[in-house]
What does this fold into?
Amino acid sequence: QPVYLSDYQPPAYRVTHTELTFDLDPANTLVTARLHIERRATADADTPLILDGEQLTLRSLSIDGTPLAENVYQVGDEGLRIERVPACFVLDSEVVLAPEDNTALEGLYQSNGMFCTQCEAEGFRRITFYPDRPDVMSTFTVTVIGDRRREPILLANGNPVEQGERPDGRHYAIWEDPHPKPCYLFALVAGDLHKVEDHFTTQSGRDVTLQLWVEEENLQKTDHAMGSLKRAMAWDEQVYGREYDLDLFMIVAVNDFNMGAMENKGLNIFNSAAVLAHPDTATDAAFQTVEGIVAHEYFHNWSGNRVTCRDWFQLSLKEGFTVFRDQCFSAETNSAPVKRIQDVSFFRTAQFAEDAGPTAHPVRPDHYIEITNFYTLTIYEKGAEIVRMLRNLVGWDAFRQGADRYFERFDGQAVTIEDFVDCMAEASGLDLSQFMRWYDQAGTPEIDAHGEYDYAHGEYHLTLRQRTPATPGQVDKQPLHIPVAMGLVGTKSGQDLRLTLDGEKLGKDAVIHLREDEQTFVFTDVAEAPVPSLLRHFSAPVKLHFPYSREDLAFLLTQDSDGFNRWDAGQGLAMLALDDLIAAHRNGVEKVMDGRVVDAFRALLASEPADKAVLAEMLTLPSEAYIAEQQPIVDVDAIHAAREFVRQSLAMALRDEFMATFEANRSSEPYAPTPEQIAQRSLKNVALSYLMSIEDEQGVALCEGQFAANHNMTDVRHALTLLVHSDRDDLATPALKTFGEKWAHDPLVMDQWFTIQVSRPQADVLERVKYLMAHPAFSLKNPNRVRALIGAFAQNRVNFHRLDGEGYALLADVVIELNRLNPEIAARLITPLTRWQRFDETRQDLMRSQLERIQREPLSSNVYEVVEKALA
Ligand code: ARG
Ligand code: ZN
It folds into this structure.
């Protein structure tokens, strides 16, 4: 059942042109396909034609106008096979689909009455019989026929070429996409949509029409996405020299969507949560997410569409590169250090966990059962970290030259990760063969580091030893090429020292290259004892262990010239304190707060911050999920108790400072999602969190006031969360009621209302989840609702991991039901259960027995693959 990378064969038949006609109907859509097919010169004349096709009802089939007799072809569950075909021919087929019954949201489906599609990776085979693989690229002409009242708007990829009335009273539109593309980039949308329109003039002076299509009530929520799109278009021209290549670019917002968005050529389709934003309904974080995703999908036009993937094992070729591109874009439009801090903390929490669990896989996997299970943090974010390392290794200029080479050489082709790395090697002259191991080796490399200062010779000896733990199916690991950005910070001067390594002067901020299992780097002319600052800006996706003392970390927290490492030192200092408190909690010993953390926070609060958003991050403790990642066995209650203790101790010791910070950062300016305002709000809200953690009257009053003032969703949501997560149910209950009634009509706000309630630490959460599943605003068929309620509950560490196992049972119930409705979402939802090995034995047994219960069901390939791995 698995597919293997090593089995790759180029396609025997190409499709040079594709003509599709959709006669839309919720229960009976007729899809007529005319495929212009050619056998490749290298293929034998007797090679059968095999087309993918699933859940299609075939009505007719003919070659060059002659209907095929039933004995010359076979139709099975997975497709169609025609034994003998000419070298060059036209294949006509007619199939019937029922979009209204499509709850998997793959292929052609209906969302709120609107027709839409999702084809990546293998959804096109649910639309018509076709070679559904990315290395078959074709031009497309698409005719969409619909009901004028129900579907006044008919969209597909490319340029509109014709529209009109039909004798039967229906209307139609014809679209032509001149750029050859794989069928996973096909899209169609039809429904009662409204647009906002804008224009962008490209570098070379072409006018591009930009359209954002939404349901009427969402017209007020489009400004931010449109602005983001224009910024992204300008950025890709300035930074990568890449221009848009059609006269029209469309984005459509749909309510039911499995992921964030999809880069279909000229017609991006978005989850409404990833494109709509208004100050009254979306938080600062949501504004930033929208900007990042709009840019991401736009950037795919080159990194993904013009140059695409040969096969799905190469998925990170387009996703890793495009995530790297959107990260750089967002860093430039927001606070760059904060963007890096947020990306890395997420990465170290969630990707490290994936890499350490039973579903660990390389950035380029070598086999899979269900490709939709591989749209993962490893393929996306670790892939982006690898591209970032490449950029840093070869330098920006060579990287840009390599990218130019890649886009030029492979334009209109479907290629591999080697093709990309080769361009970088050629442009830089570097040997990247060892570096390639990053793509094929799963697991997070760990570096054990230690250093020694030799006073007598003025030398600093730094020894780095790397190892990558075994992952499923990969026991032996080779050493990787790991770039370690570093400095030596003099303990007397508090400055970065000049680095001399093997007689070579490296400057104050250098990169050393670890390629062997173990290497010792001897720095000479080191005039004072240093504290090393290692892995600056997270220069490689590894875990680095250095035996820092608390004094070292407190020193780096104030003196390191690298902002990222200053933040990281603060996190490290907090982690040492948290570790002690977790142990104290487990041993039933009285908890004592580490005064050094209090002193460090006091100093931070007294400083005049250059960037308030960075300060807000520095004042934020590691999340429970991150702390859990650092423990050999996760004790959810001890972690929660320890973190709360630190929060409250800091709040009590620094109450006046937090109060002053809160007051100094209030503002009545009209809302704008600018970096300055976002920074100020985040600092103010961090202060409010501390004040609310001790629930003193003044803090509570400020929180209630912020909720009632109703200035913008960022502040309202933050205040509501603090009220609901406090023990003041007398305040939480009415606030939730007010908010829920006010926003009952807005599903994206109701999602926030669900999430806030089921993330609270109090013990009533499981009952709430069950109660809310019956709420009229909830539906298991909508992925956003499922994520907001069930997904958020499974992230609630203390409540999901209840010792009676009821949290696990509830998740398993939902997975079993969703397995029938939407296998992709069902498979994703299981993730927290797959991490059972990280917990105590009682919980391990409880989690495993729920996985076994799921395993006994008749399963989709998606859920089957995840459960098999989890229990292997
Ligand atoms: N290519 C899309 C993106 O990263 C995501 C594809 C979604 N695929 C899926 N099977 N849901 O922007
Ligand atoms: Zn993408």
